[in-house]
Specification:
By secondary structure, the protein is an all-alpha fold. It has one domain. 68% of the residues lie in helices and 0% in strands. It has four helices and no strands. The two termini are 32 Å apart.
């Protein structure tokens, strides 16, 4: 029996989002020290790292809804690729995000079940 949502893609994307968010928080700690020297660069590092992680998590959660699987997978794929600029979730988040997004995009919803007509009386 096929699943109503791509659970493997969801789990991989969720783990990728967690790694990217943790990497973003680490980068934000570094960004706070850089903010003393270059305020704009420090704030940009903080915002980009955390936003990419949150967006990957949001895309993963969107994949739970069968009507939003393709949009969620696209969000996961795009922001996992962009996360490589901030470390890619210790690189494992980048890889898991690519795999999870690709699995989400390739997922086909199960065909609707058709009940046989009732027997004539």
């Amino acid at each position: 029996m096929s699943e109503s949502y791509p659970s493997t893609a969801f789990v991989l994307s969720l783990i990728a989002g967690i790694f990217i968010l943790l990497n973003g928080l680490l980068i934000s700690a570094i960004g706070a020290s850089v903010a003393a020297i270059l305020p704009i660069a420090g704030v940009a590092l903080v915002a980009i790292g955390i936003v990419f992680g949150i967006l990957v998590l949001l895309g993963a959660l969107m994949m739970r809804d069968p009507n939003k699987v393709k949009s969620g997978a696209t969000i996961v794929l795009v922001f996992s690729i962009l996360s490589i600029f901030i470390g890619g979730g210790f690189f494992i988040g980048f890889i898991l995000g690519i795999i999870g997004g690709a699995l989400g995009l390739s997922w086909k919803p199960p065909p609707p079940t058709v009940l046989p007509p009732p027997p004539p009386t």
